[in-house]
Amino acid sequence: MTIRSTYALPAMLALLALVADPALAHSGDGYGGGFIAGFTHPILGWDHVAAMVAVGLWGAFLGAPAIWILPIVFPLVMAFGAVLGILGVPVPAVETGIALSAVVLGLMILFAVKPPIWVAAVIVGAFAIFHGYAHGTELPATVNAFAYAVGFVISTGLLHLIGIGFGLLVRWPGGRVAVRGAGGVISLAGVAFLTGMA
């Protein structure tokens, strides 16, 4: 099995999950409503999508072990941020933090910044708090909080996988340019979110 085929299947499954219509066998209260609400929440906000794809892209750009550490750190810390949001603990400038995550992560990719792994993990983790907090505060009152959290963590992981899949193009010279260009696009999107243009 080649490296390309190892990553192609998860990337294709993630893409299918994003474009497929959900089977709404369960709705409202309980596991189905909570899971579906949580799963769709990250993919319906372009600011979240941009940042989460950027985490996977940057991890792939940095290579091992960052390719797996960053996409693990983000959802773990994001879950902590969600708990803060559910509990109503005040976190300032959440929307600004979310927009800045796309700006900063996009710039890291564009300029091929390669910090030590712990620095990259701290950057990703800091932004994950804002994303998780937003998910937590927007938790619908009628859904199961645990199922909702499982849904948004899985959805986040799939977005990271899409970023990783695209980021693996860095192994080729033209692909490296494409990945860095994608970082620039993500950063510009973050500026648009920050200035209210998006």
UniProtKB/TrEMBL annotation:
- Pfam families registered for this protein in UniProt: HupE_UreJ
Coiled coil ranges: none
**Source superkingdom:** Bacteria
The signal peptide, as residue positions, is 1-25
Keyword Transmembrane assigned to the entry: answer is: yes
Transmembrane ranges?
Answer: 43-61, 68-87, 93-112, 117-134, 146-170, 177-197
Going by the UniProt record, its keywords in alphabetical order are: Membrane, Signal, Transmembrane, Transmembrane helix
- This protein is called what? Ni/Fe hydrogenase
Q: Which organism is it from?
A: Oceanomicrobium pacificus
Organism ancestry: Bacteria, Pseudomonadati, Pseudomonadota, Alphaproteobacteria, Rhodobacterales
